[in-house]
Amino acid sequence: MAAPFNWYSQQQVDGNGLCCEVTTECNGNENTSKHTAVTVPLCILADVQLRFLCPEDLEEVRTLCEDWFPIDYPYTWYEEITSSSRFYALAAVYGGVIIGLIVAEIKPYWKVNKEDRGILCSSLDDESLVGYILSLGVRRAYRRNGIASLLLEQLLAHVTAPERSTVKVVFLHVLSSNAPAILFYQRCHFRLHSFLPYYYSIHGKCKDGFTYVLYVNGGHAPWGLWDWMRHVAGAIVSLGPCRVPHWIWQRLLWAATLLSYHR
Ligand SMILES: CC(C)(COP(=O)(O)OP(=O)(O)OC[C@H]1O[C@@H](n2cnc3c(N)ncnc32)[C@H](O)[C@@H]1OP(=O)(O)O)[C@@H](O)C(=O)NCCC(=O)NCCS
User: Which of 132, 143, 200 to mutate for ligand 1's pocket (most ligand atoms within 8 Å of CB)?
Assistant: First the structure.
């Protein structure tokens, strides 16, 4: 069967320590190349190349994910992330070997599962898109070298590009016991949004999870009581103490007028 059609690009370090992006069309045995000028600062990790996954990566990606994650993903999942343009699936390659990868998906907010429906303020939810990180991992020998940070930076640059301004939040689920990943995401300014009891089923056992979020492009969480209190307090302070009784009196008059209309 012919390999599914896919686009992938390779970012290579140029002579200035910056990167140029080579976009390659991968369709079965045919490979045609075209160049798109993109600069990516890779001063420290100069020997690491970034490129999108392609169908030929399937077995390598599968071996890595089986090592990193206690979850058995179906074969079709690997087929999809290595071939479908629906996913932002970026690999960090060193010496011809994949040493890290990130897989994310951009989708409308209304497609988000019900347990995560509260991540955006309701005034933003109709047209908004969200970025969901399905997978992020780095080969054990290469951890604490900034590889995951590099991959995440690329994703964040992608979702904050002007043409994706409707993406309002990037979020993910993580096992509550996965301390390294939690510390990593916290270091990258993700914030805990919710605790998901028994969210995962791992080898027949239920395990708790967390949802972590990072707001982008002006996205924000729904306002809680504390936010409203801060807002009202801020408004009162900005009025000045002598105008507060007048301000309250005016609101009471408005409320009374509205009530009399509705009688
Ligand atoms: C989580 C993971 C992706 C981090 O990858 P990495 O390439 O080592 O991360 P980075 O080098 O970019 O780390 C950046 C910062 O995150 C924090 N961090 C990352 N791993 C950490 C760990 N094991 N312990 C404490 N802090 C850690 C540190 O602050 C680190 O900065 P520092 O090295 O200067 O102290 C990696 O540990 C991994 O692949 N884990 C297995 C797969 C997994 O659990 N993925 C997440 C699923 S949601």
Answer: 143
The pLDDT tens digits of the residues spanning 88-136 come to: 999 999 989 999 999 999 999 999 998 998 999 877 767 899 999 999 9
Inter-residue contact 48 to 19 (CB < 8 Å):
no
Positive or negative CA dihedral for 180, 185, 154, 120?
positive
Question: Tokens in use for 69?
Answer: 């994650």
Q: List, in order, residues 6 or more apart from 115 with CB less than 8 Å away.
A: 194, 196, 199, 211
Strands 129-138, 167-175: pairing is: parallel
**pTM for the complete prediction?**
0.77
Domains of the chain: residue spans and CATH: 47-222 (3.40.630.30)
Other Cβ atoms within 10 Å of 112 Cβ, number: 19
Residue from 44, 140, 184 to probe ligand 1 pocket by mutation (most atoms less than 8 Å from CB): 184
Using CA atoms, how far apart are residues 263 and 258, in angstroms rounded to an integer? Answer: 9
Task: Give residue-wise pLDDT tens across range 178-196.
Answer: 999 999 999 999 999 999 9
Ligand 1 contacts (CB < 6 A) are: 68, 136-138, 143-149, 172, 174, 178, 180-181, 183-184, 187
Task: Round to whole Å and give the CA distance between 221 and 188.
Answer: 18
